[in-house]
Amino acid sequence: MTTPTAVLAGYQAKRRAVRPRSRKPWYKNGSLVAGMTIVGLLVLMAVLAPVIAPYDPIQQDLTATLQSPSAAHWLGTDKFGRDVLSRLIWGARVNLRIGFLAVLIPFVFGSVLGGIAGYFGGWIDAIIMRIVDVFFAFPFYVMVIALVFILGAGEASIYLAIAAVSWVSYAKIVRGEVLVAKKQDYVVGARLGGMSHTRVLVRHIGPNVLSQAIIYGMSDIVMDIMAVVTLGYLGLGIAPPTAEWGSMILDGQEFITTLWQQATIPGLIVVVTSLGVSWLGDGLSDLLSPDRRK
Amino acid sequence: MSSRLNFIPARLLQAIPVVFGVTLLVFFMAHLLPGDPAIAMLGDKATEERIAALRTQLGLDQPIWVQYGIFLAHLGQANLGDSLTYGRPVTELVLRAVPVTLSLVLFALVLSMVIGIPLAGLAATRPNGVNDLAVRTYTLVGQGMPQFWVGIMLILFLSLKLRLFPVGGYGSNITDHVYYLFVPALTLAIALSPTLIRSLRSSTINVLGSEYIATARSKGSGGVALFRQHVLRNAIIPTVSILGVNLGYLMGGSIIIEKVFALPGLGSLMLNAIFSRDFPTIQGVTLFVALFVVLIGILTDVVYTLLDPRVNFGSKERE
């Protein structure tokens, strides 16, 4: 289930189950290597799209619509005669870009607010956490869809809408980490040494609590890729004719009985992408938190 | 028993600021829209007089906090405004759609347990064994599949190839509803099951390591009976709170699934409203769903307390 809570819950369940692992070199970390390979290949595909795509992804050819796979069109053509394989390759650009970039705003915003709430506590904490509760009440897609409607279609709206929904998870995670960290000796020591709150928070606590937010961020990327694809499927995402996986599935659904591959393949590539990012995240979490838990 | 439920008034009190925040956020949605909220509410085809009348009714010429007061007063009377496309009160449209969405969500919850409990048990019996690895791969793949795509694939195989189920729709009586809702509910259940399995797997591993399980084993209990009588009862408790939170979020997922299967629930209501720019309906559905999620949160805490005699929300601060 791709909701912030679901991912958060999964993350917490996973985190509870974390066992101390022996430190091994990164290249012997199976999930890290598998994840890096898959994500690397996909990024390469996106970057090289103009070179490797056999056709222009938005070039219509109304004399060759809805073709089955052939030597000329490996995955066939859509209802406008556009080459499906080329659209799949170009789609990686939009889907990967938004998926990866969309985590940045909520990551920064949520971590800062969560850090402040956890560090200062008291009424600051109470106010921030009540705001978190309010945002948490809105299911991910309900809020994203309503916000994309209000802000108008387009990539910028998607970033803002995703940010508005997902910052709360970062705030919760970082707050929890800061609550633990601020009682540690090195923080107490830094304060006794006369450092300002800002300095302690940014220079001393920050680097120690952010790894958890980064690990969560990796599963958040999966969720954002899913959100972009879903918005595309609902007709609320990137405007046509830009190639995008979600809208390709929507187009393919119409002809599912005759050209099943047109809805199936773009979905499969989403699954592969998510799997790659998840493995990368698992691998990173091994690297980032090897021995801090008892 | 009853003394442990004494936390309920305090829990309700705690929900009040959240409810206010939710209404405030939904109220401001109208003001985030470009242009005049009255025009957004009535559509751009409305006459000058109607717009002027609504402006007075909403108090748009008054300070913003008065407007919020008016919004709350309307809300108190369950007045969410009139739909632009249907010309009927939004409350009525929402109440008509709720049973569909709610049955879908509850059905999905049941199916996700049917899928999740055996798989979690299988995985937990021998952590890092072959079964565990297979189940963990399933959770990873399950999390990476777009829900609507799973729905389309199930339609392709179960409905079009095998002709076991209808392609979409809701049917007209109870038996029909269960039949028509099975594939949509299965879709949502597949989406929810990874979360359920992960939580249940780790709590089952913990329970299996405990002394009372060793005792039960030494008394000759084992296999499915041990799992059902001793393990599951304890392992499922932490999962209840995760499911409780997700029940609200399943409603978000059902918005998309309803489109795939053409079900007349809250999701279809909201998406149709989006495409006809029917702002009062969008606002109404959003508000309803959020308030519902807050309510589910409270109910989850109550169920949690009833299930686990050790939990006492009244005695310690909740985190």
Name the chain pair whose interface involves the most residues. Answer: A-B, 55 and 60 residues
Beta-strand proportion of chain A: under 5%
Separation of termini of chain B? 22 Å
Helix content of chain B: over 70%
Order of helices and strands of chain B: HHHHHHHHHHHH
**Runs of chain A with pLDDT <50, length 5+?**
none
* Gross geometry of chain B: globular
The major pleated sheet of chain B works out as: none
Structural class of chain B: mainly alpha
The tally of beta strands of chain B, per DSSP, is 0
* SSE topology string of chain A: HHHHHHHHHHHH
Principal-axis shape of chain A: elongated
Secondary structure category of chain A: mainly alpha
Task: Pick out its properties.
heterodimer; A: 294 residues; mainly alpha; 12 helices; B: 319 residues; 76% helix; 0% strand; globular
